Amino acid sequence: MSPLVSVIVPCKDAAPWLADTINSCLNQTWPKLELIIVDNGSSDGSLALAGKYESPSVKIIECARNGASAARNAGLQQTRGNLVQFLDADDVLDRDKIRIQVERLGRLPEGTIASGAWARFHREPAASIFSPEPVWRDFSPTDFLISSWLGGGMMPSFAWLTPRQVIEKAGSWNEELSLNDDGEFFSRVVLASKGIAFCGDARGFYRTLPYPTLSKRRDRKGFASAYKAADLSCRNLLEHCDSDAAKKAAACQLQRFIYDLYPQMPELIKAAEQRVLELGGSELRMGGGSAFKGLSACVGWKIARRCQLLWHSIRRGALRAS
Asked: Which residues, including other chains, have CB under 8 Å from residue 58's CB and lie 6 or more apart?
């Protein structure tokens, strides 16, 4: 029997892109599909726009609880499908994405989840360039996370297609998180699965916007969420696999957070540094240009990072003054 796929789209003030997102779902070549759009307090007309698509297979609901995780959980409660596709309100799917993944999962053991190829775009998905990463292949659950965290790349939410039973085993989205809530959720989903089946022709498109979004939010709440998400993900992996490789990957993931945050919120940096030491340390080096690397070799990465941020601040000030 052909499974029903439930697509969940959380939406807050996404009116400029929402129609593209919805149409990419309605144009899927997989015929058994329901679309659940969850408005999360939009004030830009997104709810009215979504309402134009309402039909027996397109449901519009409102979520009073704040946050994309809450909206996704509200959508999950409304689903009837055997398989679940999450899709942010500014991203789009290739028309064959869901069909290709459904068909491959149908040939694999129950509890397997599907991943897919993805690319970034600014205006038109057709202009996207797909750049394969090490995680673009079949994996066991723990090996996927280890490879990803050691620098092998990542999978955005829309790249996955997940059996409902795996989500029920993994648990709902953590509504206490904002930044990196998707990374924490899908780390649990991966570990709750029997394995990952990569589908290279199942493509999705990640819209890159020219201004800050929630995923780029750099404030106290956002950083606290990012640290909690990283720490929870690492602890979850180590509960499933206590190998040296898993510890190294977890340390690398936390060290990456330290590099991204420094020098803000020293209390979070201290906590993350302590966890990295407990895990045996990390060999990950902070990226940067030749000038940054040269300065780091002389005075250490922390002073080099402060100099880098000061230089960026001076340049921005000069541009505004010109």
From this structure: 22, 26, 34, 35, 37
